[in-house]
Specification:
- This protein has 158 residues and is an alpha+beta fold.
- It has a single domain, classed as Nuclear Transport Factor 2, Chain: A.
- The protein has 4 helices and 7 strands; from the N terminus they run αααββαβββββ.
- Strands 1, 2, 3, 4, 5, 6 and 7 form a 7-stranded mixed sheet that branches.
- Helix 2 runs antiparallel to helix 3 and helix 3 packs antiparallel against helix 4.
- The longest helix has 20 residues.
- The radius of gyration is 18 Å and the shape is globular.
Amino acid sequence: MRTLINLTLIVVLQLSTAIKLNASPEEDAKAVAALDTRYQAAVKANDAATMNQILTDDFVLVTGRGSVFSKADLIDSARKKEVTYERQDEEPGTQKVRVWGDTAVVTALLWIKSIKEGKPADYKLWFSDTYVRTPTGWRYVFGQASLPLPQAQLPGKP
């Protein structure tokens, strides 16, 4: 009897995983959008644990100035609270998620208002975040950020 119960639980877990892996593109887009919003909130709060869950181990971020950061770099910065954020928020209505099978790209306009090493910053930039579907769910694998936009430039759509 116990074996039958265990077997039933395994089948149910496998089916629930299969259902998630076979989600529609619209469901995938919603899941990735929510995950990216969650990631941005984790950065704002210097929540290294949540960032660690979302980023892949081989994650890379490339900035508009050509700097390259690894997962370890971002997690270390969050733990040390090197940046204090007042804002680290996607501008409403700018987020667009595109899904191609097991890959999704999020593009949005990000408003950053922060203090780093005593220096204030207040700017907006466009970013593209690439997510991949893994056996454990969607994970953030690559990010690219534009240069900060000139203050007078009005945001457009990606």
